[in-house]
Amino acid sequence: MPDRVPSILIVDDELSMRELLDHVFRRAGYRTFVAGNGAQALEALRGTVFDIVLSDVRMPRLSGTELLHECRQISPDTVVILMTAHGTVEQAREAFKLGADDFIQKPFDIDELKLIVKNALEKSLLRREVALLKRELGDRTRLENIIGRSRPMQEVLRLIQTIAGTNSTVLITGESGTGKELVARGIHACSPRSERPFVSINCGAFTETLLESELFGYMKGAFTGAITNKKGLFEAADGGTLFLDEIGEMSLGMQVKLLRALQERSVRRVGGTEEIPVDVRVVAATNRDLSQMVESGTFRKDLYFRVNVIPIIVPPLRERREDIRELALHFLKKYGQNRTPPVTAIAETTLKYLENYSFPGNVRELENIIERAVALEPTHEIQPERLPETVLRYDPARTASVFELPEQGIHLENFLMEIEKSYILQSLRRTRGNQTKAAELLHMSVRSLRHLLDKHKIRHTASMFRESGAFRTGDTSDAP
Q1: Which of 52, 292, 297, 381 has CB 3.0 to 4.6 Å from 8, enough for a Cys bridge?
Q2: Which value, to the nearest 10 degrees, does the dihedral of the CA atoms of residues 16, 18, 21, 23 take?
Q3: Backbone angles phi, psi at 103, to 5 degrees
Q4: Angle at which helices 110-137 and 15-27 cross, to 10°
Q5: Residue 419 CB: number of other CB atoms within 10 A?
Q6: Confidence at residue 415, expressed as pLDDT on a 0 to 100 scale
Q7: Would you place residue 336 in the very low, low, confident or very high pLDDT band (cuts 50, 70, 90)?
Q8: How many CB atoms are closer than 10 A to CB 403?
Q9: Is the pTM for the entire model greater than 0.90?
């Protein structure tokens, strides 16, 4: 997709100057808008996002410097260049102090003005890119950081390399803690977009209203607290990759808005009227079965087909046990050097315990176990005693026998429903009715837990856990 055409607001009280500049910049490839005074320009800024404001200084009703001040409040990222026929060094200094990107004196050379506008816009874009890159620098992951020599992980790595060069939407599925975001970052790192931003968001962490403003941005005054224009993550990821984690937690209303953005390849900020083109590759992830959600009516079929162009399934750790040792040593290197004295090894017996364990929390659980063991270990080598009891007491044979098929067979759906319900109730009982903590124990989002409470018709039971005298009073922050 070609680069987005930059927009420029030309502000001057002289009609001939407005017409001249409008003609010049339209021929130069800009989308042009004109205003005859500062007040008109301010009204335009409140309803539309501009890349550049080119304004005269001396104007009736609202001067160029006053417009500059207002623009910095409304739209901090907009480039502002001031023009004046009465320029002095002091005026230029004051303009830069107020936040002007450049200052030019009339009469000016048209080619010089075009160059000043072009350079100011490029510097602005560079500042935004640097800010995004700094934010990502601490945790940006390359493909080599996806650890796993097992056949399932090698297949994932081969698929990443195969599809990275395309712009197709990718849907990554897998249990919580398997490393779906690492795969998304790997796709981005191997793609032609690798030098552009990688921006991620957990869709299950926001309400519909907040998620809309995070993804699409908003205009000043769109709602209480919107004191300035704000870019959304689609705009922030322009030219790069947007990672939508836990897309299955998105409400139906938000799904419609996302589908429109994907189809139109443009976004409209909350409270705005302008369609803003974006060049973004979307990678989505979920630990839920979206096809089943489509059947139940909780996920839109058209959005499902839009995001599921290239599916990637990340295997759980129990299906790639040969990777456990390598992963454990990787996490030891990550956390062991922070200790004094450092922890530099894992006892062979400890590794055997880890390789024997089922890891329901997958790679994230293994990382937490190693981090905890490093913190507790007094020697240079992690001993088995530093492992959690769940790992030390784990018996694969016993676990397998629990799920042995009875001679008379079993009603599988009812059986699984009862297991699900039992674990939900146990998690709520253990966490004294706190749904956030219960969701963490079950490795799911709070929204998913509440969906299951309604599915099993036990939301009232869950609230009784909190109200019971067996639990701490005042712990109502997570009420259903």
Answers
A1: 52
A2: -80
A3: -145, 130
A4: 60
A5: 12
A6: 75
A7: very high
A8: 9
A9: no
